[in-house]
Amino acid sequence: MDEMTFLNGGITSAKGFRTAGVEAGVKYAQRRDVALILADVPCVTAGVFTTNRVAAAPVVVDREKLAATPRSQAIVVNTGCANACTGAQGLADARAIADASAKLLGLDPSLVLVSSTGVIGTLLPVDRIIAGVEKAKAALAVGDIPNEQAACAIMTTDTVQKRAAVQVTIDGKVVTLGGMCKGAGMIEPMMATMLAYVTTDAAVDATWLQSALKAAADVSFNRVVVDGDESTNDTLICMASGLAGNTTIDGNHPDAEKFLAALKAVCTNLAKQIVMDGEGVSKFVTVKVRGARDTGDAHLVARAIARSPLVKTSWFGLDPNWGRVICATGYSGAEVDERLVRIYYGGICAYDCGRVADEATLAQMTEIMRERSFEVVVDLGLGEGEDTIYTCDFTFDYVKINAEYTT
Predict the structure, then answer these.
(1) What is the DSSP letter of 278?
(2) Is the pTM of this model over 0.90?
(3) CA-to-CA distance for 295 and 289, rounded, in angstroms?
């Protein structure tokens, strides 16, 4: 296997992992809301978390554990309650769930990580979650059904479960990476409410895996925008069991770049699924900026366009209002000269260095926006810098969902 191969898999595709998703009554009846990921052996583990200064209790707990020892063997995830802004009680609850789960699973508490997603400012129903972990322990399995059930058990306003898997060859050994994630609203991971988990059977050096995961996050989860709100609970965790039998991957390994490419591919696939399932989304839009003075400026412009409510509502309304795009470009903070800028919708030039689209061109742009997925390109004409953000439109449904989130 010389090339990367995508699989119809998920969190248990790699050797040494089992999972389950069960109903625990965290917030709603008859809904899977507790997921358990269990490895057969302690795993080298890396994590990337929210940069929001208001971090949820499980984020605090996981950061502490991985800083002390970059290893884990189990992850417990609940939906229905974010356990954020819950003070000392929230921290105690997160630790209690980790400790009780460790006892149920026969593990050292340091090897159990926890994640939560849902409404901010409510306390966890600890007993129900622990009961859910016990129920999940009995249901642990490998395969498509448990992969799907676990992915469903971490959803909030998501409408579909999200998972991905790839295989590559490292040292002549088949190495698999599998993952699942959730996220639909409060999405601007700069590392939304976004949770993502990746497992691999590769043997990987802990320090290198941390840097690789950060690099993967930077080109995937950190390149998606649904609504510009960064969550208190953003979590991305990668567990490496080492059961594939390859020599340990680090920065000097001849196949390090191949593994990194596979990790980026899984994360990018999952990140795009988040945008496609954004709250009320009807359009998936790739915003590409090129010709910037540098990559930093390209990123500023792409993100400004991707998170602009005026731009996003124009996409929903099929309004070829390229003026909103150049407006966002101008206030992005990047170096911009409107006399050099070109704007394209799906290859149709809307603005060309001061020359504006005629009625026929505007009609072509409208047809482009009727597609479920399209591309907006801004060429600044100033240099070689480029960047890409994946985003979506704003619809009536987005407003409805978020106007009624807690009621």
Answers:
(1) -
(2) no
(3) 9
235-221-399 Cα angle (round to 5): 90
* Catalytically annotated residue among 50, 176, 193, 232: 193
Where is 74: in which H helix or E strand? strand 71-78
- Quickly tell me which residue has 């306003």 as its tokens: 157
What are the distances in angstroms from CA 389 to CA 276, 344, 351, 376?
A: 13, 15, 20, 10
> Edge-to-edge strand order for the sheet containing 355-356?
355-356, 348-352, 342-345, 373-379, 284-292, 385-392
Q: Is 248 a catalytic residue?
A: no
Segment 359-365 mean pLDDT? 95
Adjacent-strand bridge partners of 249: 204
Alpha-carbon radius of gyration of the chain: 22
- Whether 235 and 61 have beta carbons less than 8 Å apart is answered as no
Calpha distance 84→201 (Å, rounded) = 32
Around Cβ 290, how many Cβ atoms within 10 Å? 20
Taking residues 318-329, what's their average pLDDT?
A: 95
- Residue 211's H or E segment, with its range, is helix 206-218
Question: Band of the pLDDT at 275, cuts 50, 70, 90?
Answer: confident
Crossing angle between the packed helical segments 206-218 and 256-276, to the nearest 10 degrees: 40
Query: Could you report how far apart the first and last alpha carbons of the chain are, in Å?
Result: 51
